[in-house]
Amino acid sequence: MSIPVGNTDEQDALLSIGDRLASPPRKLTPKRPQSDKAGLADVFPYYAGFSFEWAKTQLSFEADVNNSVILDPWNGSGTTTLAARANGIRSIGVDLNPIANIVARLRAQVGSNIELCPTPIASRSRISESDPLLAWFSKRTANRVRQWSKALSLLPHTKATLGYVALFRVTRSLTTRFEGSNPTWVRRASSAEDAVDVTQHRLDNMIVQAQEDLIKRLAGESYSEASVSIIRSSSTHLPIAESSVDFILTSPPYLTRIDYAVAYSRELAILGFDIYQDRTLRSALMGTTLIRPSPGALNVTRYGSIAAELVSNISKHNSKASSGYYLKQARQYLDDLVTSFDEITRVSKPHAIMKLVVQDSYYKDIPIRLAEICVEEAERRGWEFVCWDQAEVTRLLTQVNTAARAYTKGKVAETVMTLKRSQR
């Protein structure tokens, strides 16, 4: 199926299908403002996603407040789940990244009475030489961060969440210089002299202040008491009952080789994850740059025609490693995508609505028509395409890579598509 950019007679016809599924006013797009504070979007930066105001509008326009259950199988930092709560609708957010889940839980606690986490008593314990925090911090600073993380791990989740996000914010602030032009890549300290070193007193004050700032922000928001369930799991294995979800609002990871584990390696280190020594989490995340054990011979029947054509084009590209590493990475992503659609379909009720925000991209000079792939794969699983809306993307992550600029690329669009599950 070909999805054109802009307004067409065909598009206008599709937009008229069903009063409940007609597109809301287009002036509000999913693109997040650079200084987005609505829905506590700035509590902790999370790459990609859509704006809170847009998500809230979509749900208020199309979801049944009294009876709906909203699902985001790639929930990230919890924009969908918070937007659902703002509308008084029950929601479930699933994500495999533990950092995303902690931030989502904190955002869902708006209006709650939250207390400061106690400052841990300083001890003479010495940090392990293999502690992942030493990739950015001096021994004394890493040791104090670890004392905080251990103390938080002993608290109930409802109390520890505030302390963790405060610790994430402080860590991000202290290690900003390790960030490069690629927003998803973080370098490590090159030597002991390059590591961040602050006194215990300063670090403790920063963490306490960060908690106090978060408490003020959370207290300043007032939403309904609708239940929010945040679950750590993969979109390929949703721990949700069959036919239990009414509305899916989500944005799947794009096929742009974004390594979310590396992007959040500092925060994962706080939780004890060393993504360089143990690749379990990193390799499990959708879109990872790591290649899992080979899935074996290509089964073209697993994909629809558009995804199969993409795989074929990548395999035939004359650039280095196209028929090797890059082909494997694309297949791995597509396998995760179609398996996720299997799961989303399994947990959805008949006549459920699914709204996806998807961005196309390029592999070298090969267009990755991800929006069309998603529509086709959904249709193969019994979903009916209802309508779409598109906007041109002016800045691509591929432009950050100097070598990638050598390949001619056309326009890329961000697509918002609506589908409805049929009863058959």
Tell me what the structure shows.
- There is one protein chain.
- This protein has 13 helices and 9 strands.
- With about 425 residues, the protein is an alpha/beta fold.
- The strands form 2 sheets. A 7-stranded mixed sheet has the order 3-2-1-4-5-9-8, sandwiched between helices.
- A hairpin with a 2-residue loop joins strand 6 (about 360-365) and strand 7 (about 365-370).
- Helix 4 (about 100-105) crosses helix 6.
Explain briefly what this protein structure is:
With 424 residues, this protein is an alpha/beta fold.
Number of strands: 9
Mean pLDDT across all amino acids: 86
Helical segment count: 13
Radius of gyration: 22 Å
Order of helices and strands: HHEHEHHHHEEHHHHHEEEHEE
The major pleated sheet works out as:
7 strands, mixed
Spatial order of the strands in the main sheet? 3-2-1-4-5-9-8
Described by the principal axes of the CA atoms, the overall outline is globular
- Counting helices, strands and paired strands, the structural category is alpha/beta
Distance between the termini: 21 Å
Strand residues, percent? 5-15%
The unreliable regions are: 1-26, 404-408
**What percent of residues adopt helix (DSSP H or I)?**
25-40%
Keywords:
disordered N terminus; 13 helices; alpha/beta; 9 strands; seven-stranded mixed sheet; globular; two-stranded antiparallel ribbon; 36% helix; 424 residues
